[in-house]
Structures are given as structure tokens and as C-alpha cells.
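B., you asked whether I could sanity-check this one before it goes into the benchmark set. Here's the sequence:
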Amino acid sequence: MTTYEPSNPLIVQSDHTVLVEVDSPNYEAARNELVRFAELVKSPEHIHTYRITPLSIWNARAAGIAADEIAEALCRFSKYQVPEHVLVEINDFSSRFGRLRIRLDTKGLVLSSDTETLAEEIAHSKSAGGLLSDRISETEFLIKSANRGKIKQVLIKIGYPAEDLAGYVRGEQVSFSVLDTTQAGEKFIFRPYQKQAADIFYAGGSKRGGAGVIVLPCGAGKTIVGISCMEQLQTSTLILTTSVTAIRQWKTELLDKTSLMEDDIGEYSGANKEIGLITIATYQIMTYRPDKEGDFPHLQLFDNRNWGLIIYDEVHMLPAPVFQVTAGLQARRRLGLTATLVREDGKEEDVFALIGPKKVDVPWKEMENQGWIAKARCCEIRMPLPEDLRMPYAVADKRKKFRISSENPAKQQVIRQILELHKDKQVLLIGMYIDQLKDVAGDFNIPLITGSTTQARRDDLYRDFRDGRINILAVSKVANFAVDLPDASVAIQISGTFGSRQEEAQRLGRILRPKQGENQAYFYSLVTRDTVEQDFALKRQLFLCEQGYQYSIKAADGF
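And here's what the prediction gave me:
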């Protein structure tokens, strides 16, 4: 019989939400369990709210967490008795995972159910029924290969995610090795968690591996995990990423740490259309089309080679047209890499169905405690809106209110104070509004990278920053993703994209590469007090609070 302790932090409610008391001595241990099977909804100062959903349970199941483990964790940390029906429904959500399976046999591609009743439900579903071909038994249907992804999308929306065991094509063989000593002359070995993540994805080459998402903090070396997966598969690989800068970083890592040669790796971007044994392309070029009603000419890249593996870097950024093509690529192994599965468009179910379930999710704080990423102090600095902007703010619509508060000129003085405090550190100044960034960069004589900066200029500035020739760099949201600046240890966020949780995580991630010495990073978010910017800042911080980071809040005049 479970004994419920008054000092425990959890209050499990009948609507599947879980309240968490931050001041409890067991808060950290409870949060570490909770994030494995629930998602954070809001995180004000003292009580955080999580939600248990079918998808959060299915991702937990795919990561090897059983329903009784989830129930045990809830009961162990709950202040009061856990509602019985919540435990029953967790068990029900969990049991739905794998009741439908897709496999390949002599008859073709087969969708099978564990009961005739469920088979009937699927057969009579308007959305699923049209994707089925012949019924070959009471519990089995043939499906066309072209519908393999579509049926998985539909079934997860019905509430029964299919386990895909149909296997994959081998793809064009590529032989290469990972070097013990890099081309730069440094010893190289996969970190334990990197090798473990790749092994879980590969699953010994079995049908249970080969499709899924690996979630690791920024700075933990997701590119290296991708290389480890490539080494195990030895097959032609298409890598999709967010920018030309990211393409160059993937290529640099592959050339430095493997036996692959320059001619083996193709860059497919606006400037180059190379297709190699290993090809790295941007999402931007894949979704380019001459006009809004036209086709996407570069999506044919998916068919231009017999790919054995497709890697979706920053998979939470995957654009809709690539989702659509991916539905038809289910016979190819698919690896998603990300620091956060949060999608602002709510398409987490499509990631689960089309790329694969979450296979690995290592908490950021766990990585920090082991020294693999830098320790981070997060501070929100609040300042008032100047008197002359209060009336324009009062009469503006919500979007304009956000811009006025984000571009608060009072932030300039706070920036000056932070730069003085960290004058011996490598600093990134990050913002959303270009005019604001230009003003700040001009006032402090800081080089600036925006979307209009040429790739050559970006490469030069990133190189100068990495090499220490400049120690402060201003960047727009073009630097949110896949920019490797290992020595950056301070980030000053002067404006952000409304309530984007993924952006907050990515921006903190720019400074989490492990550091020499104290291994300490500092993340400052400048926010105008008592405005919509402050409201959005709370939403932005959700993901980082879920990972265990706490924001200290300071007033600008007391900073």
C-alpha cells in the first residue's frame, strides 16, 4: 500500500494534469521522473503544471518505460492519492502502443491487429479505411507501400499508433571508418551517451531500429551521434539541416573524424547542387518553389540516389512539404536529431508517425552534472517602459505592443552593464528585430549577422569569433540553430519570437559547449516589465524550466 507524504511535490489531478510544488525537497527527483512521460504546460514561480497525454505516454513506451514504472513514479512522489481512473487511463494509453503492427511478408505489406474488434474499428474508420487494400484475415489487411506513412499518420490520430516492423531498404553501400585520431591531430572517441544513443537507434540492425528521434541538449554533439549511426549502417546518407552554415559544420566534422574524402560529400544548397555518397542539404532549398502554386523542384533529391539513411537535423524545424515527402519514404531509415521535440505548429504526432518515436531523451541537467555541457545561470532582467512610449504602447494592438516592449531603448544600458561584467568572455547578443540589432551593434561597435549577411561574411565572422579575434557578436535568429561557437559563454537575449519555447532552448544552447576551467555559461533575457513581452517570456521559459533551469529575476536598476 502506498503511503502518501505531505512533503511530496506532486498533486495528480483527474484531468491528467499534475501540479508540482517547486519548494518541495523532493522537487528535483520528481521532476526528473515526470519529464520522461509528461509535458510541461506552465511554470510560474511556485507551482508548475504538467500534462499527461497519449503521445507523451507513447513516447515513453517507445523509450522503454513501462506503464507500471509511470504509475509507480506518480504514486511515489504524490502528496495525495492518485485518482484511480488516471492510473487506469495511463495503462490504457500504454497498452495501445503496438496493438497495430506493420510487417512485410510474402503477401506484401501487412497491417495486423491484435484483436478482430480493433481490426473492425480500423476497417470502418473513414480516414483509415480508404488506405487499406485487401483484407486477408480477420485481423490483417494489405496496404500499399505508398500508403505506409499515411496510414501511420492516420492511426496515431485515431489513437492507436502502429509499430512499424516492415524493415528498410539497404541503400547504396558506402565504406568508411571513424578515425581514432582526427585530421586535426586530436584523439577522438565517442562519448558514452553518444555511442549508446546510436546503438539504441541502430538496434543491432533489426527491424525495431532504424527510425526514431534522439533528443540531446545543444552542445552535446548530436552531429557526432549522427556520424556514429552512419558508421554502423555504412550506407549512402542524405542529411537535411537548417542552413548553409550547418552544412559546412556537418562536412567539417565528417572530414575531420572519418575516412570520407571531399569528393564523397555533396553540398546541396542555393549555391551548389552537388549529390555525393553523403549529401547535405538545407530545408530551405528543399522547400523552394518558383511560385506559390508550383511544384517543389528540389524534392526530387529524395529520389536521386538510393539513400539508406535520411538524417533530419533539428527535426523540430521540419517543414510541411518535407513531412509530405517523408510519408512516402518509410522504407528508408530515418533519424531525427533535436534538442527539443517542442514544435510551435503542434505537429509532434507527425514526427512520431513519420520520423519515428523518441528513442533517447537525456535531461539537460544530467548532462550538466556529468560535465558534458556547461553549467548555466539564467537571469531575466526586467526594466520599465520609458514614459514617452507608454501612450503609444497603450493604444497599440497586441503585435505592436510586443514590438514596442521588445525594442525598449532602456535595454541599451543593461547591455552595457552586462558587457562590462563579462568583458573577458565570448558574448553573443541575440535578437529578433533587425533595426534594434543594428542600433545596438552600431552603438557598441559590434559586428552583426542577419539573414541578409552573405554566407562568406557569416563564415568569416563565425571564424573570427571562434578564433578569438572578436569577442562579441550580434546575431539575429539565423543563428538560433546549428551554429557551433564553442567558446561562447554569455548570451544576451534582447528580443525573441513571441512565446517560442524551442527558440529559448536553442538560444541557451549556443553557449552550452563545455568550457575550460569553471565550465560556466550565463544566459540573460532582457524583458520590459508589466508588458506583453513579460507574458511571452514566461511561455518561452517553459522548456528550460522543464529541464531544471531556474530563472533568477532582477530589476534593471538593481542589477
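One thing to flag: The chain is about 35% helix and 20% strand. Otherwise nothing jumped out at me.
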